[in-house]
Structures are given as C-alpha cells and as structure tokens.
Amino acid sequence: EPVNGDARNFVQKEKRKKGIKHMIDKAFLKRIQERTLDVLKYSKEEEQHGLELHKKSIVFDSLCEPPSPLSKELLAKINELLDEGVDRRSIGSRTAKIRQAMVKNTDYVAEYAEAWEHSGVTCISSTMGTTDLMATINRMADSEYVIDTLSNLLVKTNCVDDIRKAKENGKHAIMWNIQNSLPFGGGVDAAKELDNIDLLYKLVLLSSVFCSCESSAS
C-alpha cells in the first residue's frame, strides 16, 4: 500500500465507484498502479528495486476480512444483502454455504490463488470478531474450512516460524484477530467473559485489539 495519502484516497474512491464486482479486475489494478507511480514519482530503477524487495520480503497485511474465493453467485448475494441494508458483519454467516461450495470449484480457486499472488502478501491478520461469541466461533469455523480445504495454498499460523515456513513453501499464512471485546460477552458478566477469553485462546485466536469499544472503555 502506498504511504502517500493522495494515492490511498484514489484507491478508495475507485473502490467505492466500482462497488463489489469481482476478485481481480486487471484494468482496475493497472489504473491504481499507474496513479500510485504518478504520485510517488519513482524512477524505473527504484520501481524495479521496490518490486524485487517486496517479492523477497515477508509481507504482512495487518487487518483483513476472512479471505475466500468469489463467484458471480456469491457477489450477487452480497450485493443483494447490502442493498437490503443488512449489516456487513452479518454477511459472512448469511453466505456461508455458498462460500463453502466455492472452495472446491477449481475455477474460483485458481482466481483466488492469483489474487494472493497479485497481493504479494505473506501473512494476513484476519478479523474473526463479530458482535457475539457464537457468531465469532462460526466465522472461525468458516475460515478453518477454507484453510483446510486449500491447504496447498494456505496455512493457519500461531507463531513466527509458521509464517517463515509459509514464505519458504510458497504459501500464505492467516492469523486470526478480533478488534474489540464484544465477542467476549459485551461487559455483562466478567467471570463468563474470562471463560470466553480462554475458549477463544484454545481456538487459536491469538490477537485481540481493543479499539472504540463500549466494553473495553468501561
């Protein structure tokens, strides 16, 4: 991601303009790349050096939605739910069956693998947290299913060595996180919330970032 704010703003405007269409739009990516290079004004040598450095490095994307392949059917369902005003956090559970079927479709899996290669990312911290414990566990189960089914491409990580091995083996590592304390119980029963923390830890939820949350604030 470019560090320049103008380039970031351009990407966000393009995304909003397009809406959710499909996983890889090469013309869209080319426009973003051209705009970014125009803003940053790299020389050809600097650009090539940056690409080579990125390819050799272990690259983290610090906050991501749970990754999965996309299909026309899934995109249509997502757009339908968004048009109905459904909360984005509920979309995963409402589309789980479609996504589970897709990870065994070779066409979509090939496009999914290509999207990973385009990103150049080694490891992502994938957001599992929703507004309650059961929904969070269901989301973790969905992610686990994708990772297990696509084990030639993905690994779930709980340590640095896993990430290094993923890089060495040409795979991509996924670490789970939640962004606030709502899945623990929402501040109603402290003792129960401590039990829920233990439960999620056993399910290899290693990172929890508390931000702008009523429970953590209280």
Work out the oligomeric state of the chains in this entry: single chain
Form type: globular
Major beta sheet summary:
5 strands, parallel
How many DSSP helices? 11
Number of strands: 5
**Could you give the distance between the termini?**
35 Å
Summarize the helix and strand pattern as letters.
HHHEHHHHEHEHEHEH
Describe this structure in words.
Helix content is 57%, strand content 10%. The protein is an alpha/beta fold. It folds into two domains: 56 residues, no CATH class; 160 residues, no CATH class. Strands 1, 2, 3, 4 and 5 form a five-stranded parallel β-sheet that branches. The N terminus and C terminus are likely disordered.
Q: What layout of secondary structure does this protein have?
A:
Elements: H1 5-18, H2 26-40, H3 44-56, E1 60-64, H4 72-83, H5 88-94, H6 96-102, H7 106-119, E2 123-127, H8 133-149, E3 154-156, H9 160-168, E4 172-178, H10 190-202, E5 207-208, H11 214-217
Parallel strand pairs: 1-2, 2-4, 3-4, 4-5
Give me some keywords for this one:
single chain; 5-stranded parallel sheet; globular; 5 strands; 10% strand; disordered C terminus; alpha/beta; 218 residues; 11 helices; disordered N terminus; 2 domains
